[in-house]
Every structure is written in structure tokens, then in C-alpha cells.
């Protein structure tokens, strides 16, 4: 009869949440196995860790899935054609500013902070995964600008790619500001200022 392994002395779901918070706070490369084991508690050994999560990379991917399931709806309005394009962009930036500054989890965005150190040897898959996620958000902003042009709200001469990148830069940038302690009240005002980029491209109304 095969010998059974030692029963786990930790809650896997709680351990995954702890890992998510660590990766969110420090990024993939800067989070060590010893930090992960300590955060999980229960005196988890290296063999038990690998039995539960296979590898640090696999754990990161699972933690990122958990993050997206909890907070990944920030950009959903960008792809909702029932929402006016300007409103969709505004909703995304407002939601992001609020979530990035909330308590109960690390500040900022895990996808943005995950880029810290990513690209080092052995993390190419992680780098590509994060780039893909950031690219989808950027594509969402681009889709909204294109809709604004197509509906006649924005001037036909509007550079959709540049305006989308400007919004995406703000979207990613406020994650860093939240981590630096910029308060939510300031973020809300900054979102209003950022929407001025859209308003500057609005097609003048005819008399």
C-alpha cells in the first residue's frame, strides 16, 4: 500500500490569498519562497509548498487569477457598448482610483506592481502574461476612443492610439501614486483633470 503524505497543516485558500497580497505588494521576482512560506503559516515545509502549488511561477499565476476574479472588473466598462464611450473611460478611471486606495489589501494594481523585476531570467512567461493583461486594458481604452470617433462625439482627426495610450498611462500611473500614499480625494480630482484629454478632442457642436 502506498504511504500517504503528511496531511497539510495550512488552509490552501487562505494561503493563496496571502500569496496574492505578497506578490501584489512586492512583485514576482522580489517575493521570495521564504516570504511566501512565512506568510502562509502552519510551518509549511518546502516539499509541502511544492505539493500544494507546484512552483512559485504556478502559484503566482493562480494568485493572479484570484486577483482578477476579485478586482479584474475595473476595465469591463471599456468593452460595454451600451455605455457611452466617455462614460466608460470615466467609470474605469474612477473605479481604479477607488480600488487602488482601498484598505484591506495592498495599494495599487497587482498587474502593474507585478511588472517590478519581471523580465529577469526565468520569468519570461510571467512577463508575457502581465504584458498581455496590460495590453487588453490599453485595447479597451483604444476601443472607446474609436467609438467616440465613430459616433461623431470626437473629431475625426483625433489620434485614437495616442489618446488611448494617454488614458492607459494615467490608469497605470495612479497605481504607483496610490502605493506612494497619494490620498483617494486627490485621485478623484485627478481623474476629472484626466478626462479633460477627452473633452479637448470633442467635436465642436454646430450652431
Automatic annotation (TrEMBL):
GO terms for molecular function: DNA binding. Residues 34-53 bind DNA. Residues 9-71 form the HTH tetR-type domain. It comes from Pigmentiphaga litoralis. This is AcrR family transcriptional regulator. InterPro entries: Homeodomain-like_sf, HTH_TetR, Tet_transcr_reg_TetR-rel_C_sf, TetR_C. The lineage of its organism: Bacteria, Pseudomonadati, Pseudomonadota, Betaproteobacteria, Burkholderiales. Keywords: DNA-binding, Transcription, Transcription regulation.
